[in-house]
Amino acid sequence: MLSPLGTRRAPVWEAILAGTPGVKAITAFDASSLPVRVAGTIADFDAKAYLEKKDRKQLRMMARPIQLAVAGAWLALEDCKVDKTTLDKTRFGVLYGSCMIPSELPELAEPGKLCVIPGERVVNTKKWGIEGIPAIQPLWMLKYLPNMLACQVSILHDAQGPNNTITENDVAGIMAFGESLRILERDRADFFLVGGAESKINPLSLSRQCLFETLSKRNDDPEGAHRPFDRDREGTVLSEGSAVVVLEEYEHAKRRGAEILAEVGGFSAGFDRARDGKCLARVIRQAMAAAGVGPGEIDHISSHAQGAPITDAWEAAAYREVFGHNVPVHALKGQTGNMGCASGILELATAALALSTGIRPATINCPNPDCGLVVTSGHGTKMEKPCVVKVSLSQLGQVCVVVLKAIQ
Amino acid sequence: MAQSHLMRSNRRIVITGMGAITPLGLNVADTYRGCLEGKSGVGPITHFDASTFPTNFASEVKGFDLAKFITEPKRFEYCGINGKFGAAAAEQALADAGLRPNDPCGSKADRTRFGLYLGSGEGITDFDGLISNIVNGLDATGKVDAKRFTETCLKVFNPLHEAEQEFHTTPAHLASVFDLQGPNFNCLTACAASAQALGEGMELIRCGDADVMLVGGSHSMIHPMGITGFNLLTALSTRRDSPQKASRPFDLNRDGFVLGEGAAMLVIEELDHAKKRGAHIYAELVGYCSTADAFRVTDSHPDGRGAIACVKGALADAGISPAQVNYINAHGTSTQVNDRVESLTVRKVFGEHADKVPMSSTKSCLGHMIAAAGAIEMILCVETIRNGVIPPTINYDTPDPDCDLDYVPNQAREATVDCCLSNSFGFGGQNTSLVVKRFAD
């Protein structure tokens, strides 16, 4: 995992338990014209550290989200201590959630200069055809295709099994996880890298998001900008990140002596058309039924927690319907901000770490919960029950749920 | 998960509705007929002035007006054309299946067990906006000035248009309009996307996550950035003097693919569910496999490694032998490498039977609808089973010694077809194969 809280499992988990804030003022570029000037970024990311020397030349074909995805896969393989030579490559799958990858501006500036009269808002496409196109590097498009996260990872690690890319914004990571689970259940793979990676901390993505997304403008208090379920929440905070988990058939993991962090109990997905939480409540119940557990066995909910007024409210409505006020809610985004499809997987990984260590993490930036929820706060506490429910949702209504169980 | 959870489902999946918006017609029947007649959908690009681009032609959808298909077109006003094609094709497929929310069967169906899995492409970048913003955001030394650039973006970009470019909008619109409350997936695996959506959608029904799924794809890359990107990769044909001859899969003188656009949607359903409501069953979806070449982002594996595993996997999933396949709808893009490797793949998997199986590429007529290609090709397989006429590979003039199969050259062919294989192989090495059969109880 790579996140605003750090890189690799141990430092990230420590930062989560310490309640370290990950959102900062944007320093990567001059954001002073934007209404939003806070974000979570990965400091000093150098993709070369996560590739074998012979593969490093491939980096020029990878935009930042793809580089992050490749780094996340590297770290997950290192963390799970697998000997890759023992894997059946045709049963080694790769599934990623992926977002729209923004064009890098300098690459388009050269052709642009040839085809736009400064001050005007149109491109002379006749000139573009003759002079613009040759001014761009030949493999330009491959740097930006969303399926390249999973493709590049499959190439680097010779993973010839099932391979897919879910493009569905904030639910993409957990949807990829659910699909991988189904593929393992139907015995078409033994071993999966499931991830999500995205990076919107650049002038183009942030400008676009400012135009249509409900974002927190708490520029004078970056660390407190993302306020999950809090009375004073005003919108989400964009962050970049990459999270990859190894999802593996149980016997396969046992045979190779793997450290097992948690067992997957169930997965379910749906579309909350009215955005009132009713469908989300149904999907949570379905996932728990699949896991063979009831609300009484859930220690906490690893929530989505967009930090936006309306979205948090309907998410909370679902929790109240299913659990009353009895199950505490954890919201990692208070610390990380919203890493899009990477957040779902990082939050799932956090839930797995909670189950394996027995510590229920605390939420930051929610001093005044107003959605009728019990939100974890203060310090990590001892877990009391054997399961965690992980929820991801999109503001348009896509919802998905995974139930994780402690290993007995 | 425990070993005991591993299972093979015995739930059978049938196709009960189809819809299509393609360069050869605004419905399934016209599209299939156009292919049988060997028509080409290719012409000069009209979406923008592409006259000086290395490739100035494409296979565009003609005469499309969303208001003729749905009652609520305004909702899609700021969507890319891909979303609009998708909405129209979805309406057709659901009407065909009788499963729109207000249809007699549709109103009785459990909408929470009705999901959606699309291979829907991205929205379309505001090309003029983006490029001019970059130029107008340059500082005196010609470098991008973030402050100026962001200021310009906030002024110039249309918020609604930008919002609709996000990947989850098309599946959300369709689920909202058609009240599909089950699992809502969208994948984008380049040229394999909607085939993969069909396959994974079928698996969602098999494993019990849903009883009915709307599956398919919608896409258009016929825009300045799309043509620029593919031209730079030298993937597109540049046969500017005879565009209708440009898509020539398996022909010796092929020089790249021709971009198409459109949407294709299917309603797939668990067999008992379909029977109970007296649905018309078009065919049964029986096999699916997904593999990765894990080789290079630019080329297929030269020995067809991933593709062979994929075709074999789909046949095994269907429980059939190569000899039972009567027709293959090829990926057949008309690029040098794809067509050679795909022919090799079929020869290796089918052995001596390879010479007896007709394999055509309907991309010769339609062009390459990218994310929507796999779904339209599945629909054409279903029509082939129903009508007993195999669509031809047009523009097949000069055999290529590396492509030595029966490509159904230039003329449609009557044949009894009970079982079809459809291949889709994506940029980056993502392979998908599907098997569809005549339905027999």
Summarize the topology.
The complex is a heterodimer of chains A (408) and B (441).
Chain A: E1 2-3, E2 6-7, H1 9-18, E3 23-25, E4 38-40, H2 64-80, E5 92-98, H3 105-115, H4 125-132, H5 148-156, E6 163-166, H6 172-185, E7 191-198, H7 203-212, E8 241-248, H8 250-255, E9 263-271, H9 278-291, E10 298-302, H10 309-323, E11 329-330, H11 333-336, H12 341-357, E12 359-360, E13 381-382, E14 387-393, E15 398-405
Parallel strand pairs in A: 5-6, 5-7, 10-11, 10-14
Antiparallel strand pairs in A: 1-2, 3-4, 7-8, 9-15, 12-13, 14-15
Chain B: E1 13-21, H1 28-36, E2 42-44, E3 57-59, H2 81-97, H3 104-108, E4 114-120, H4 127-136, H5 146-156, H6 159-164, H7 169-177, E5 184-186, H8 193-206, E6 212-220, H9 224-232, E7 261-270, H10 271-276, E8 283-292, H11 305-318, E9 327-329, H12 336-350, E10 359-360, H13 363-366, H14 373-387, E11 389-390, E12 413-414, E13 419-426, E14 430-437
Parallel strand pairs in B: 4-5, 4-6, 9-10, 9-13
Antiparallel strand pairs in B: 1-7, 1-8, 2-3, 6-7, 8-14, 11-12, 13-14
Overall geometric form of chain A? globular
Distance between the termini of chain A: 26 Å
- What portion of the residues of chain B fall into strands of 2 or more residues? 15-25%
> What is the average per-residue confidence, as pLDDT of chain B, rounded to a whole number?
96
Question: Order of strands side by side in the largest beta sheet of chain A?
Answer: 9-15-14-10-11
Tally of strands of chain B: 14
According to CATH, the homologous superfamily of the largest domain in chain B is Thiolase/Chalcone synthase
Provide the CATH superfamily of the largest domain in chain A.
Answer: Thiolase/Chalcone synthase
